[in-house]
Specification:
The chain is an alpha+beta fold. The chain has a nine-stranded mixed β-barrel. A hairpin with a 2-residue loop joins strand 7 and strand 8.
Length: 249
Amino acid sequence: MKKRAWILVALLGSLAIINTALGDVGPIKRTAEGHPDFTGIWQPLTTAEWDLEPHGARKDAPPGLGVVVGGSIPYQPWALEQRKKNFDNRATLDPRNKGYMLGVPRVAYNAAPFQILQQAKHLTLVYEYQNSVRTIYTNGSQHPPGHIDWWLGDSRGHWEGDTLVSDVLHQHPDTWLDRSGNFHSEDLHVVERYTPLGPDHIRYEATLDDPKVFTRPWSINLILYRHKEENLQLLEYYPHTFDSEQYYP
């Protein structure tokens, strides 16, 4: 069954090449407020879910060039040692394998698709993985005070031209950033940027700041692709109820 999974990865890669060759042409659809309309089903074509940093092929992951700007995550010395321990024990320690929600930004580059429903004062993001739902408020409201352990954090957004900027706080510390043990603390602060590159592509950027774990803020950069198939819809996907490795290796 694993052969099917690698075929899926190859097909997704081929789709990315075709999209690049054709180009993303045409006007960007806009809302009544004049903002880019991100309504639709999107999916990343990247190996970031397995490892954010550049990595070779291994038994439990395909090779990848990484999505970290500059190549490597700036860990504090103690945190780098912890990441190594996480990697060595990833099969049992990865919160994903326990059925937990993925957190932000990992939920954005998980291999499964997600849907954006856009309204004037908020965007609702529905993820096929765990069928989890997240709201980015764009109504000028602020984060609630204190700290709250929410699996997908609290997202407050605004528009900078055509770019949606989402500020994310209140994340649960028991989530990882990928399947290779990259991690954070409860102080993680993420700033996401969704920028349209055309009608069917979004550049997704996220800057992560966590003074307990990292020596400085750092960023990731990847592309989200809009699905164009007729009648496409999200399906139920609870990976702890079946062998999800057959579908998303």
